[in-house]
Inverse folding.
């Protein structure tokens, strides 16, 4: 699956960023819920391993899902205990080996295979796309903390598609229905290509950089902090709460909260 290679490439880009980072920076809080870079890497490493278990050991996967749900202190405490507090260079290298192993496993998997997960079952293609999305999203707080503006590639189209496909999910997780059809999207890719989704409309339209759309649907930026042009009540409402990830409804960051640090 191409998505597996895109996941590998996005993970490698984050690894390259951290490969020469100062060791002290791994314990510094980021703008995302004060998670440290160590916390980000533990989280990504753990759930990459869990994705691998979807293909190799469903019983162990289900046991660990149950353990996470019942863990005292919540998910982050469980992840830290699972890795016995692993951090710094050792964690970075373990995560590097792990994401390559996960990419290898999914590269040859049946894209349509149905796999277990904490939420509804999903296809193998959806699973590895979700890993790419989460790596990109959590990578954002790392880039921001290190004061680096990320140079994106067109593989973020996977996240755009996920954002489009979860238009209804944004409302379903809040127990409501979308106030209308999905707005028309006109997004400019990092390469300069133009990606369009939804029925053409001037009344309900979202236009601008694909990167900014990805930031909004992953809740790494408030819509007010992007250059997206949003037209129409449905478009405005969606962008105020868009959520392309599973779980209960989350509130996007407040305007100005998430940004590239000036060092």
């Amino acid at each position: 699956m191409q998505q597996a290679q895109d996941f590998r490439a996005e993970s490698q880009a984050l690894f390259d960023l951290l490969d020469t980072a100062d060791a002290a920076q791994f314990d510094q809080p980021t703008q995302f819920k004060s998670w440290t870079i160590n916390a980000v890497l533990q989280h990504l490493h753990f759930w990459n391993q869990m994705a691998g278990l979807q293909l190799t050991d469903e019983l162990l996967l289900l046991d660990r899902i149950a353990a996470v749900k019942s863990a005292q202190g919540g998910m982050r405490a469980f992840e830290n205990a699972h890795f016995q507090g692993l951090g710094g260079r050792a964690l970075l290298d373990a995560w590097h080996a792990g994401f390559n192993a996960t990419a290898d496993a999914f590269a040859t998997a049946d894209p349509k295979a149905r796999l277990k997960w904490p939420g509804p079952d999903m296809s193998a293609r959806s699973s590895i796309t979700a890993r790419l999305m989460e790596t990109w999203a959590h990578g954002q707080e790392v880039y921001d903390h290190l004061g680096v503006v990320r140079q994106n590639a067109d593989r973020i189209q996977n996240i755009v598609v996920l954002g489009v496909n979860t238009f209804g999910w944004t409302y379903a997780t809040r127990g409501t229905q979308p106030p209308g059809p999905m707005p028309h999207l006109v997004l400019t890719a990092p390469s300069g290509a133009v990606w369009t989704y939804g029925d053409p409309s001037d009344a309900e339209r979202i236009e601008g950089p694909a990167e900014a759309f990805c930031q909004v649907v992953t809740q790494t930026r408030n819509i007010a902090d992007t250059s997206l042009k949003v037209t129409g009540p449905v478009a405005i409402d969606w962008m105020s709460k868009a959520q392309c990830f599973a779980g209960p409804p989350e509130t996007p960051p407040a305007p100005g909260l998430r940004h590239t640090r000036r060092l």
User: Anything to note?
Assistant: The longest strand covers residues 184-188. The radius of gyration is 18 Å.
